[in-house]
Description:
This protein is mainly β.
Amino acid sequence: MSHYSVINFYDNAVFSKEKVMINKMLETENSKEIRICLSKDQLMKEHTAPAPIIVMVLDGVIKFSINSSEYLLNKGDIINLAAKVSHSLLALEDSIVRLSLAKAVS
């Protein structure tokens, strides 16, 4: 069994005008690394995560909303949230986002 993985977040990135494209890129015992491709003007409706998350914009620009606060996130920007915090994302241009999702400790 291998103790490491090598991936490229940009490989096979696909945009769709019909839906947000979400792909699990890597999973470890502690976290999941997920790629989210949003076409310009696509919205990920308000939702929560079951565990803490870190969101990083790899390409593009998104408006990240938390309750009544909005943050403009550009390429390279990172934001973190505690578990169960309601948030949404709106792509202001075609965007690739990395979501690091901690696995809930039981």
